[in-house]
Amino acid sequence: MKKILIFLGCMIIFSTARPLKEGDPREIIEKVRIYKLTRELDLTTDQATKFFPRLNEFQKTEKEFREKKAEIVDELKNLLKKSAPEEKIIPLLREYEDVLKEHARVRLKKIKEMWQILTPVQRAKYLIFETEFRQEIKQMIKEIRRHRFKESGG
């Protein structure tokens, strides 16, 4: 019963998040991830209602960092294609370093906020879960690509 309540609570929390396109594989993966994470960490209802909003904030921070990093790298690519002088490249490299520093600071802050909700055992389980879940998803993507390649006559 406890797990059902937690799962329903999580679904309510995530239903208020910005929706992805219907049938979007990322949405399905995220729902599976939340379900498995809730089960793996054996979260109480109170923990779940506090943890998942912080996890959402953490993921938002990570996404913003990836976007900013990609933007800077794209600008660097364009400058290099145009054989721009170093004077134009150096400020972007400094900006990249500043973005990295800020990301590290914010990331650590967000992780500490999540840690306050979890027990040490749950923290360890979370770290293991995240690593293994990412590996599992990468493997699934690799299998899908291999299957599509075989179907296309490769």
Task: Write a short abstract of this structure.
The chain has 154 residues and is mainly α. Helices cover 84% and strands 0% of the residues.
Description:
It is a single chain. With 154 residues, the protein is mostly helical. It has a domain at 53-117. Helix content is 84%, strand content 0%. The radius of gyration is 20 Å and the shape is flat. The protein starts with a helix and ends with a helix. Residues 1-18 have low confidence and may be disordered.
Q: Summarize the biggest pleated sheet.
A: none
Termini distance?
49 Å
> What number is the mean pLDDT?
87
Strand content: under 5%
* Number of contiguous helices: 5
Q: Report the strand count.
A: 0
What is the rounded Rg? 20 Å
Instruction: Flag low-confidence runs.
Output: 1-18
Shape: flat
Element-level helix/strand string: HHHHH
Give the class from helix and strand content and strand pairing: mainly alpha
Helical percentage: over 70%
Helix/strand layout:
Blueprint lengths: L1 H14 L9 H17 L3 H37 L4 H30 L4 H32 L3
Helix pairs in contact: 1-2, 1-3, 2-5, 3-4
List keywords for this structure.
about 150 residues, mainly alpha, flat, disordered N terminus
